[in-house]
Amino acid sequence: MSNDDEPECANPLFFKWVSEWYEAARASNARTQHTLKKACVSLQRYPLLLENAQDAVQLQGIGPGIADRLVKKLASWRKEQGIAEPTTVVPEAASGSANSDTPTTTRQKTQRLYVPRYRSGAFALLIGLLKTYCLYGPDYFIPKSELVLICEPFADAPFHVGGTSHGSGYAQHTAWSGMKTLESKALAERQGGVKFCLTEEGVQIAKKVVEVLRTRNELSDDDSQVFSKLEERNAVRAGSSSPGIHSSDFDSVAGDPVQPRAGIMSRSSSAPFTRQSSATAHIELDDLMSYPAGSYDVILVVDNREVHSTADRALIERELESQGVRIEVRPLTVGDYLWIARAKPDSAHRHQPDVVLDFVVERKRMDDLCASIKDGRYREQHARIHATGFTNVFYVVEGSDPDAVSRLGEAAVSSALSRIQVIEGFHLKQPPSFEATLRLLRQLTESLIDVLECVYAIPDSLIGLKGFQELKRGIRARFPQAQLAISFDAYDVVSNKSGSLSVGEVYLRMLMTLRGVSADKALSIAGCYPTPQLLIDALKADGGVKAVDELIVDGSCRKIGPVLSKRLAEFWTANSF
User: What digits encode the pLDDT tens for the residues 66-96?
Assistant: First the structure.
């Protein structure tokens, strides 16, 4: 069908097989072709991974019959590929009475204190994870590539294949194998497959490892200062906190510039240990526009399309103001709520513009979340949030809607909520009602007012349409304690839906607005006719429509076809619409 081999499909095997069945049914003019076409469209648009073929029955156009065919086809494919069928009885057998003695013995053994060998992979990984813990909090999961950069100085063996061990020539294994040891002993846990952090038990062991370095006088002054923050953090938690600060929102270190709680940081833009790029190597904090503590007010900005009901569009504004929250209503291109810093009228910085702080809230009702998963807005909105470089994203899913959840499938909704936290790295909040959402916004605003100190705004001259995330990561890598912000104009640029598209990308989108032109077909057309003018000239020329008809779609044996080529000619050569 017209959108085969869509690269964004989360279930490519199921989509491929159903597409083949659809093509066969269409060729024989079978009545099942219409149902199979619906099944293809549903599989193409569904953004979540189906764990097994039976789960596909929750999609439109797929009933028990198609699901059974998928089950048989999957079993046949696994047999051809030599892949064993997954079993579901292993966990039950492991907990049965016949094997009850063995797990008990193993559990008793794991309680023994584990001490990694000096300068082994596990030794270095514990140091790197504890360093991340001290700087970014207990819930921050650091990506593997960045963790390796921290750990390399503390291990004899290399962390990559083909490296050389210290004084031992070619390495027979990598130090990264120590991560399996840490996970098996419940000292570290992973998130999303390639991000890691310490468990509570791991923190205690890591402290002992750091003490080993201290006694051997192998701990640098910089590292010693970082690890000292662990004691400062514990002292802050033990003391009384400010009225507006809640442990579920922020965790700051006394005496240091504010550091957002690690649990609400994004997976990429908050990377604290990335390599410095040449574009940011020369940037100093003095080059950034500063807003010292006490010189600005924190104001909550509400999207002008964010309404509780059409009957009372000002309800949100009125309720928040009644709770003492300063707000403004503006059109927002990304997020439903965000915060700005505005220089106070009597401060020396009163002529500086408003800047957007590094915190944003995306609010959805449960029924809206389900609808966005179905129509594809779910992933597109997440991609745009990441493109803006926000490192503190609160994803608010408000209330419950059993009907909407049952229509989409409870498993699909649960998977989407997990993806929001694990894959996207957002901080998920699920208030039960609209009133609870307003209370959450008030608490977050109060927390920001209490914990924010000096804010540094990246000048507009350094922000382009491309590479903004890399720029921000580079600055954060050099100054991990700095609270960064951007101007409202820069926010509009980097968050615009089409502002960062190249001419070629706009051309592809123009092609795909025509019904029947999928991404692979658009790429094939653009590959042969790189500009709109070349396509128009070809379609107007004698035999041009036939030439487009004969185009082979990349990655398949299919042609564009006469119907679609005629439609393209009518659309692109029309004098008016």
Answer: 888 888 888 888 888 878 776 544 444 333 4
Assigned token pair, 103: 């797990």
Instruction: Round to whole Å and give the CA distance between 405 and 397.
Output: 13
* DSSP per-residue string spanning 396-411: EEES--HHHHHHH-HH
What is the distance between the alpha carbons of residues 180 and 188, in angstroms, rounded to a whole number? Answer: 9
Average pLDDT over residues 470-488: 83
The contacts of residue 246 (CB under 8 Å, 6+ apart) are 443, 447
* Average pLDDT across the chain, whole number: 76
Side-chain half-sphere CA neighbours of 71 within 13 A: 12
CA distances from 330 to 317, 444, 472, 488 (A): 12, 19, 25, 11
At residue 65, what is the residue type?
A: G
Alpha-carbon distance 424 to 269, whole Å?
Answer: 11
The whole-angstrom separation of Cα 186 and Cα 110 is: 9
Helix axes 12-27, 33-45, angle to 10 degrees: 160
**How many angstroms separate the CA atoms of 565 and 470, rounded?**
41
Strand 337-343 and strand 327-330: the pairing is unpaired
CA proximity to 340, closest of 378, 291, 287: 291
Confirm if 235 and 226 have CB atoms less than 8 A apart.
no
Q: How far apart are CA 378 and CA 362, in angstroms?
A: 11
Where is mean pLDDT largest: 70-84, 300-314, 445-459? 445-459
Nearest to 1 by CA among 31, 34, 28: 34
CA-based nearest residue to 452, from 226, 296, 270: 296
Q: Which residue has the higher pLDDT, 112 or 480?
A: 480
d(CA 474, CA 384): 20
Exposure string of 426-436, with b = 16+ CB inside 10 Å and e = fewer, is bbbbebeebee
Q: Do the Cβ atoms of 179 and 196 come closer than 8 Å? A: yes
CA distance 104 to 80: 40
- Residue 159 tokens, joined: 């962390």
112/101 Cα distance (integer angstroms)? 18
Which position has the higher pLDDT, 440 or 575?
440
Phi, psi of 496 (to 5 degrees): -65, 140
- The CA angle 104-105-107, to the nearest 5 degrees, is 65
516: helix, strand or coil = coil
Q: What is the pLDDT of residues 232-278, one digit of tens each?
A: 655 544 443 333 333 343 333 223 333 333 332 333 333 333 333 34
Range with the lowest mean pLDDT among 10-14, 470-474, 567-571?
A: 470-474
Alpha carbon dihedral 536, 539, 544, 548, in 10-degree steps, equals: 90
Share of the chain above pLDDT 70, in %: 77
Q: Is 529 exposed, middle or buried (0-12, 13-18, 19+ CB in 10 A)?
A: buried
Range from 314-318, 322-326, 535-539 carrying the lowest mean pLDDT: 314-318
| Distance (Å, whole) CA 419 – CA 436 | 23
